[in-house]
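Dear colleagues,

I hope this message finds you well. In preparation for our joint manuscript, I am sending the Sugar ABC transporter ATP-binding protein (Streptomyces corynorhini) sequence together with its predicted structure, so that both groups work from identical material. I would be grateful if you could confirm receipt.
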Amino acid sequence: MLSVRGLTKSFPGARALDGVDFAVGPGEVHALIGENGAGKSTLIKLLTGVYRPDAGEITFRGGPVRFATPLEAQHAGISTIYQEVNLVPLMSVARNLFLGREPRGRLGLIDFGRMHREAAEALAGLGLRVDVRRPLRSLGVGAQQMVALARAVSVDARVVIMDEPTSSLEPREVRTLFGVIRMLKERGIAVVYVSHRLDELYEVCDTVTVLRDGKRVHTGPIADLDRLRLVSLMLGREMSEVRGEGLTKFSGAHEAAGEPVLVATDLTVRHQLRSVSVTVRPGEVVGLGGLLGSGRSETARAIAGALPTDSGRVVVAGAPVRTGSTPAAIRAGISLLPEDRKAEGIVPGLSVRENIALAALPGLSRFGLVDDARIDRVVDTFMKRLRIKASGPHQRVGELSGGNQQKVLLARWLAMRPKVLLLDEPTRGIDVGAKAEVQGLIDELADEGLAVVLISSDMEELIEGSDRVVVLKDGAVVAELTGAEVTGERLLHAIAAQGGPGGEGGPDE
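The corresponding structure tokens are as follows:
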């Protein structure tokens, strides 16, 4: 259905793809995996007309093609769902679903009645029932991803490319997605599936191609590879090394001591948070557990001043912090790494250097003039410490892999020398190698005395990385687990004991 041969693409200072071969057949679900920076995103952008290859050929449905634009690829029958939802937030759900192919009446005008009806039917088929006349931005991230999925499968596609499609979905929506993938298989549609979640790969994929440093290092049936071998291929490490070190870098309990550096008390936001309290001591990692919609992100945003509160107090190092003010929170030593790095974090058109220095500029200036030498020293320090892979500090952040973009964001806030670091899904959408590096860094920061709040949908990461876990449901604290209590079983029990899963209709919805 779709194949490439000898595909090569270079950017200034780096070769992103080096003679890659890849093919997917009708009704096949083909996993495309590798570390961040391995070349996965570049390959997808070459297949869909975002980039043009330097060398090699692309064959689609038996003939050579070279798409000039993504729209051209879509019209040919290649549909893509990206990790970050690439739709129009201010437009209605229905307009997003039919953007560029709106149903029209006899006079050529948009038939809104038909469009709303067909949009509602398409989303209902995916288990999503919303008012399709609402702006897309009024939906949660998971619901927006389901709209993107509905759009991708509603066009007459012969190949559907899914780039980390479950990163924003709750378990119920993941099951729906897998059902859609099986339906596509039955219809003879080829699926290219990009994910870092190994459980998903083994559940839905037939074949796997592994990329490393821009080269293809393996292609074959996924059932023929055990997980350890798959990870060793991705990382370029021997299986014995992977087996000995494991897949995470969390070292265990941290030496937390002294009075709490962060005390958030009775944080309340109408319809979102109900008297949430969190304390964190120096050198401690406190996890926020719960399902999607439980209020985890809202708690972090309220502490960081990004979500105005109706009531409640935030105290850092004994000094009260004005709530609802991000500048006040930053001055007090609170830094927030947001969940959506594309919309709320990186500035893709700026360089690595500019992104890292952005928040710290006032402290890196003298008499209102920017001190370039100081900025260079800070940027160089954090690029080395976080092992940011880039051609140099002046490369645009938008050209980096997701994992390296995440590291740039971390560097920005660490350059502020914070007292409290709020991490909202810090390893979301990054590969196992980069994930382990970020986890190791969290450990290092806690060991250095930083107070860390960790939000993660990865239960294993939350349990292994946290000293305590505050469990939320429907915007309220329902349990706090400490020490030996921090287990998967206790966490699930804490959520279920309060009346079962609370993902539907919660704050994130």
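For the figure legend, we might mention the following. The longest strand covers residues 14-24. The domain at 2-243 is CATH 3.40.50.300 (Rossmann fold).

With kind regards,
E.M.
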